[in-house]
Amino acid sequence: MKDYDDTTAFLGQWGPFQQIVFFLLCASIFPNGFGAFSLVYLTDIPSHHCLVPEVNLTKDWQEGIIPVKVVNGKEELSRCSRYRLDVVRNLSAQGYIPGRDVNLTDLEQEDCVDGWSYSTDIYQSTIVSEFDLVCSEQWKQPFTSTVYFLGVLVGSFLSGQLSDRFGRKPVLFATMAVQTFFTFVEIFSTSWTVFSILLFISGLGQISNYVSAFVLGTEILTGNVRVLFSSMGVCLAFAFGYMMLPLFAYFLRDWRSLLLALSVPGLLYLPLWWFVPESPRWLLSQGRVEEAETIVRDAAKRNQVQAPEVIFDNYNVQTETHPKEHYNIFSLIWTRNIRNTTVILCMVLSAGYFGLSLNTSRLHANPYISCFISAAVEVPAYISSWLALRYLPRRLSVICILLLGGVSLYLIQLVPQNLSVALEMLGKFAITTGTALLFAYTAELYPTMLRNTATGTCTTLLLPFYLPYIILGTLAVVSSFASFFLPESFGRPLPQTIQQMHQRGRQKVET
């Protein structure tokens, strides 16, 4: 069977058809950038203390009713207790002055029975201030992020298999619709439980949308344009969306207004259904040769080139001699070659991109500056990944960049504070570059009928948690050594069948 890239070489690599696919798929990634890290603002904890109802207290007691505690060497108002209101009211009525006539350490304290007062210096409101996720309920604040990324995990796991079974295009637009609709519906949440359920469902479409668009573009585009798309194209679209997030959050400091602004752009992408084609590679893998030819002939018409009379002349024979099979998650562990590749890629992709991004988004006292810096670091990272994919072997690139990231994260514990920030950013740069390389690497290793399943499954292990840098560094170093055992894909066509993937695996063993 002739290679797909050779069969469609008459189209060229950068005609109007490829340009439309390239830019529209990149545009579909843009909302993922600000959606993935919106929790940095939605779940941030404003300064707060116990609410004091409007009762007849002297000015001294109004200022002194909240105990002062020393936290990390600094004095600050207690967040979860106050002096008993009935006692303070009696002392105020008798004219006693706190600190002079009354020893405050002897006064009995009580919980914030009337609720809390939240600072509006940075935010008008977050879900923390809306649903009082503080003190005894504070565990819900970090758990909210866990719920969201569990949705991302489940979505990535399921959407890959659905895409390989029903097509790239339907799953892409279905996940875009899920992400957009449920992000909007979150605005109407009346409790933390309702918000968390809706957040989980919106998470189903987050990375699923990204992976579907990534695989669709990787399969339609060819040659250097495919390398450009799978590195700088989709990745820079994600980074620009990420950089837009702090701008949205700065001007929209109420969590409901922010969610509304983040959901509206998704509506603009749904009409793209009529402009983005299905993957001809996937159609061929399903035996739908006529549909694949129709798409390629339309591409030839747009590119103003002459298509051969018969484009896929030997694919019908291939379909008849090898009846269509349905593949699933278990296909990734069927044989030794595929199983080894899957296990290693799952290990390598767990190097902690999301955990590191969430950490670096909180480096600066100003959350808007922190988030922007964390996003801006990704731009040179994705440019570096494109250069590596364009000119260097995959294994060498992944091993070197993950080692750089791991060593940087190790050294953070050993240097002064001013240098540790620079090392954190270097580590973020390296891990981001490595993650971009590995997305492209994964798509190049697996055949068409397993490509989306493999990419989605391996993506489920992108750790979204606030892990210590020593653990993230260890993951990166171990992953770099594990990458040595992956097959090389540099300069080779995308495998169309399981047999082609096996041949590549055997070549690795022989070398």
From TrEMBL:
It is a multi-pass membrane protein. Keywords: Membrane, Transmembrane, Transmembrane helix. The keyword Transmembrane applies. It comes from the Eukaryota. Its main location: membrane. Signal peptide: none annotated. The chain crosses the membrane at residues 20-42, 171-188, 194-216, 228-252, 258-276, 338-355, 367-389, 396-415, 421-441, 461-486. GO terms for cellular component: membrane. One of its GO terms (molecular function) is transmembrane transporter activity. It is found in: Membrane. The keyword Membrane applies. Residues 87-511 form the Major facilitator superfamily (MFS) profile domain. This is Solute carrier family 22 member 5-like.
